[in-house]
Amino acid sequence: GAGVSQSPSNKVTEKGKDVELRCDPISGHTALYWYRQSLGQGLEFLIYFQGNSAPDKSGLPSDRFSAERTGGSVSTLTIQRTQQEDSAVYLCASSVDGGNQPQHFGDGTRLSIL
Amino acid sequence: DAKTTQPPSMDCAEGRAANLPCNHSTISGNEYVYWYRQIHSQGPQYIIHGLKNNETNEMASLIITEDRKSSTLILPHATLRDTAVYYCIVRVAFRGGSNYKLTFGKGTLLTVNP
Description:
Structural class of chain B: mainly beta
Helix content of chain A: under 10%
Radius of gyration of chain B: 14 Å
Distance between the termini of chain A: 37 Å
Strand content of chain B: over 45%
Strand content of chain A: over 45%
Order of helices and strands of chain B: EEEEEEEEE
Largest interface: A-B, 25 and 22 residues
Structural class of chain A: mainly beta
Largest sheet of chain A: 6 strands, mixed
Shape of chain A: globular
Shape of chain B: globular
Strand order of the largest sheet of chain B: 1-9-8-3-4
Number of strands of chain B: 9
Oligomer: heterodimer
Largest sheet of chain B: 5 strands, mixed
Order of helices and strands of chain A: EEEEEEEEEE
């Protein structure tokens, strides 16, 4: 079946530009997560959506980062006024619910800020 | 979540079984053992999880010791495509709190050789 889909797979942009990253979760999964992974580093949690509940935004590194999830399905992560330290792989995951069910990841968006 | 310890690297011959150990001596009664892997340039891939009984799926088997202080992930017939970093993590079983925030340690780099 279809897994988590992310687009674009790669994004190169100039410092100061805004970027939007898209995530299409597995159909029927109510929980959606955004992480980022810098080169050779572990996962850094960014934000979590579960059904109609208020999202957990505690991992967003600054107010330049925002995310929304429309209709309980597709999610968009937006980074405004990008900085070079934002360069990383942005990973999206979804799970059946927000409990101990396994999270299934997309292949990420590799973001490079020049 | 309990801390896990894994060897930094292992080698395995193609077609042979790969046995990846994980120590989680401080695991508590409500924590599951999860295994993920990450192939270069791809997102993390869920493999298997279990609480105390041994588990098997189409990808692998998970053997958990009776005292639950360690476990072994078994890939029965390793292929070159199984070369990846394998992560063992433990997570609490109940929904709630922030147990949905995945973190990976250093993991084990499994290299399958022809």
